[in-house]
Amino acid sequence: MSVETQKETLGFQTEVKQLLHLMIHSLYSNKEIFLRELISNASDAVDKLRFEALAKPELLEGGAELKIRVSFDKEAKTVTLEDNGIGMSREEAITHLGTIAKSGTSEFLKNMTGDQKKDSHLIGQFGVGFYSAFIVADKVDVFTRRAGLAAGEGVHWSSQGEGDFEIATIDKAERGTRIVLHLKAGEDEFADGWRLRNIIKKYSDHIALPIELPKEAASEAEEQPAEQEWETVNRASALWTRPRSEVKDEEYQEFYKHVGHDFENPLSWSHNKVEGKLEYTSLLYVPGRAPFDLYQREAPRGLKLYVQRVFIMDQADEFLPLYLRFIKGVVDSNDLSLNISREILQKDPVIDSMKSALTKRVLDMLEKLAKNDAEQYKTFWKNFGQVLKEGPAEDFANKDKIAGLLRFASTAGSEGEQEVGLADYIARMKEGQDKIYYLSGESYAQVKNSPHLEVFRKKGIEVLLLTDRIDEWLMSYLTEFDGKSFVDVARGDLDLGSLDSEEDKKAQEEVAKAKEGLTERLKSALGEQVAEVRVSHRLTDSPAILAIGEQDLGMQMRQILEASGQKVPESKPIFEFNPAHPLIERLDAEQDEDRFGDLTHILFDQAALAAGDSLKDPAAYVQRLNKLLVEMSA
Ligand code: ADP
Ligand code: MG
Hints:
Elements: E1 5-11, H1 14-26, H2 33-55, E2 68-73, E3 78-83, H3 90-96, H4 105-110, H5 116-126, H6 133-136, E4 137-145, E5 154-159, E6 164-170, E7 176-183, H7 193-204, E8 211-214, E9 230-232, H8 249-260, E10 268-274, E11 280-286, E12 303-307, E13 310-316, E14 328-333, H9 342-347, H10 349-372, H11 374-388, H12 391-394, H13 399-405, E15 409-410, H14 422-427, E16 435-440, H15 444-448, H16 454-459, E17 464-466, H17 471-475, E18 480-481, E19 484-488, H18 502-514, H19 516-526, E20 532-535, E21 544-547, H20 555-563, E22 574-577, H21 582-589, H22 593-610, H23 618-633
Parallel strand pairs: 2-8, 12-14, 16-17, 16-19, 20-22
Antiparallel strand pairs: 1-6, 2-3, 3-7, 4-5, 4-7, 5-6, 8-9, 10-11, 11-14, 12-13, 15-17, 18-19, 21-22
Helix pairs in contact: 1-5, 2-7, 10-11, 10-13, 22-23
């Protein structure tokens, strides 16, 4: 045992304590993944060393043969992992193995229920990482030294996973990290060559550097050689460099867990080699679920960038647009320079053309998923649909392609499910229909009963129901799809085109003419509150409705802007009435102008309520209604 100096005991960050507790108590069913996580870290550490050594070859300290070694001791009940990667300084060990840097972690951990099954699911969303060592170990020793630091600046980190860890300075001759797991009682099955070999083959075959196990004597009789011999147990070549036909699905899946820091399988992937003017290989994955920090601005995103097989950086976010930030994977370029920096990446025109090609790859992959596996696409849409909706605004060139991937709730779909694509809608259009109709609002419950839908129900025309906060904004970027323009059914003077027959139109004009007197009376009763009053042909059951002016902001946008404290341009609704409704007939016959005014205001307020808007003067509404009720019961 070497001398330990500057020994101190430090507490884990609260979030780490919570995570450790959860990990130990809820990940009991798949314990062997600890090895995958630790090997994944060792591989990352070697990648980082290789990269830093491009500029500073002395970091290799003469030992350029990069590898991971896994060994075990049956008697001592330990499993040991050793890598000759970048290692950690004392400060790095304290931060990397004592805190969780991800923003939003504490809010995320608050969602834990204590229900082990549910929580193990949530943890997967988070990624387990280094702390998974404590699933099988009741004590973990980490001996590490940062490449480039003196042998005397080694670090010994040690913890029993219960709230604190010890850290001391030691001598460590070789750079890199050695992790010793002291197995818990009952976990000694892992101190076994055959078991370890199987786990490595299963989860870590794709790791691009050799993972070695001690070579075991073929038979009892055979003598162990004086010096330990090692053998490589994984394939040890970068997975993305292999031809597609030779990579098994399971290998793609395990590789995803490594690059995506995920716990579960991806939904889909796309592996491509591009040759020609630009040469690069990409392997892109659609995750099976959203990470907890998908909507956090600083959340990590982007691809792992390699140049000629050498790892360059994580989270290279220049290769995909923001609305595809959920995509994980690798891009390996032959054209970029090995000493490319983030700053250069942002300006390099090569990156731009790679970005548009990769974007197209992802959209094609999603199209294929939608076409071949509706169930999987539904899962995709639930997780990432909201993000994809940012697409049409961000990526004008691919607007149509993205629009084809969108899914909406609809009057023809099942209750509130976002499952209708625009192509489905168009395929179902009525004879004579040349528009895509939609209605947006606060919630599904509110829009599905909206009076705006009455005429569509009567004519059997499908209307898309848009209720996500982002929808109205999205629609301001979508004007048409497949030659059919979008029409907001709550807006303007609804023109059903050839869906209304010539007779219908003629009849509408006649009614409008016949009701000119009533229209004028309503106009003067409502005064400044409305932009216009007119006879409606949207209604069958309701007496009146408010339509939005052609150029005005929709209610959703208005509410979003108001909530963010912005000044919203004033806009007045159009009051449309249904002359065939008994209430309107009654109103038309009303001689007393005071009562006419009261009734009209009640109708106006009700129309606002039905549209999901709030009343400007709710007390006045209640007073008028009560007055009417008293008169009725008198
Ligand atoms: P992640 O791998 O997602 O970053 P982990 O919990 O697996 O999270 O690891 C935390 C951090 O600890 C790593 O990001 C790395 O900085 C450090 N680390 C873990 N294992 C090693 C290792 N073998 N060599 C060097 N650094 C390591
Ligand atoms: Mg990790």
